[in-house]
Amino acid sequence: MDKAKIAEILIEIGVLLELKGENPFKTRAYSNAARVLENLAEPLEKVVLEKRLGEIKGIGEALEQKITELFETGKLKYFEDLKASIPPGLVEMLEIPGVGPKKIKTLHDKLGIENIAQLESACKSGKVAQLDGFGEKTAANICEGIQRRRTYASKHLLSDALRAAEPLLDGLREHPAVIRCSAAGSLRRSKETIGDIDLLASSKRPAEVIAFFVAQPSVIKVTAKGETKASVILEGGLQSDLRVVSDAEFPFALAYFTGSKEHNIIMRQRAIARGLRLNEYGLFKSTVETRDPKLLVRCKTEEEIFSRLDLSFIEPELREDMGEIAAAEKNQLPKSIEWSDFRGSLHNHSTWSDGHNRLEEIAEFMDNLGLAYWAITDHSKSSFQANGLDAERLRQQITEINKINDQFANRGSEFRLLKGIEVDILKNGLDLGEDILSELDVVVASLHQPSNNEIENTKRLVAAAKDSFVHIIAHPSGRLLLEREPYPLNIRAVIDACAETGTWMELNCNPRRFDLDWRHWPYARNRGVKCAVNPDAHRNENSGFLRLGAGIARKGWLEQKDVVNTLDLPALLKELRRKRNAPETAF
Fold first, then answer.
1. φ and ψ at 332, to 5 degrees?
2. By the 8 A CB rule, do 554 and 320 touch?
3. Residue 348 CB neighbour total at 10 angstroms
4. H or E stretch including 46?
5. Rounded distance, CA 5 to CA 297, Å?
6. Distance separating alpha carbons of residues 516 and 510, to the nearest angstrom
7. pLDDT digits (tens, 9 = 90+) for 471-519
């Protein structure tokens, strides 16, 4: 087992111990040990084999034994026994925003609450509000969190759906009875949240393909199984549906089941206007609904279907009835951005704040990916919970980044770390001054402490956009998908301010954010606002979010020319300096 997974388990052990009411020093020891592992400068395998774990500060004898057991066997009996000793309903309650281990233990000890249903009942009856440290507002917030969880219960993040779908598709592609296969539905359209995973395959032996599908290792339950269709529940609770059609039907079925529903309606209407009928089985020369193969207009691909309806091909991400049909009719669709267009990222974190990799590790990793640059934008001082940097620490980091860049230059590498900060937008302005901001390559501004007032939030973001030292407004709405709604905000006013000042807006491609929402990007693009697609990486592996970001950017009609981190390093640095030359506007 690798050190990242071991660190996750150590953190989970600490949470479970807190639920049991263990000594806080003991619970913190596990989270501290996880942090130590994440920051380990040499391979964990080497340290374990040389039996040096116990020599590392923060890892005592007991933790050394547990980490070694996890590393060598992939399991830990202590962890399994600990999980079994805690009612599963208590762990589920951790999914409710604002309900942490201490509150859950109090609720369990004082009111005997063991699951979410009991908690909701106790909140509504007034019992929770009477507990010390809770009150009516806390009880109301818990009820709201429970309702939000219930609303989102059938939804899943795009990243989770892709992670579950890819092994299924890989298996289908290798099966000898499968001719073609693809994801469909909202997954293929890169929607930010997914209901279930729709898969489509073509075959002359559909029953054989269905039998293979329901027997996959990730399937925990088969809910329906027929000759040409099956529905299963996968590990993690996701539902997946597979339809198997003939290869002649495949392009029509793929277009139909990809959707969206609104897009399909317009496509069918367009076919009718041309004396045709379009459905999941084909495009037919008929004035009534039919499946008559004699009337079929043969199309081998989706591209041919669009062509038959006098349209240029519409990428799946654009099929949302947001003007794509009219644009395709005039051959004015965007040349959608590809994930391989990215040259780097402008919003990322390191161990200097709340990231999990050291500067040296980040530089080596991103250079090996073939990227040209990677900005280090750790949190600023107001984000104290994230170990935010004040001016003094930031200058120390600048020195370290300069040393690393010199090392890369000396060995002939053109890769560079960029010096930056994610500065907090406070009520009275940015929480770092111009003297230190002027020393940085890039400044990302974020609203981490929003108000419930739309006017105030909008004013603060607009003021940040007008600051000559701010290059990017990050995750503008503050939403967390399936967890937290956007804070009240006049987003068009912020976009307009960015358009007027040349400030860029972020498409934060962390799959829990995807913020700015793709629905706003056509307006921003038309106003001339440039986009920075950033993973907001806290681990090196988060660089993979750029691939997800490309899909969301495509949904927003963005092209390579609209996205600043597709520029090479000299061109990017030139654009970063351009904002600094703009007239300064104070808060």
1. -120, 25
2. no
3. 29
4. helix 44-49
5. 53
6. 11
7. 999 999 999 999 888 999 999 999 999 999 999 999 999 999 999 999 9
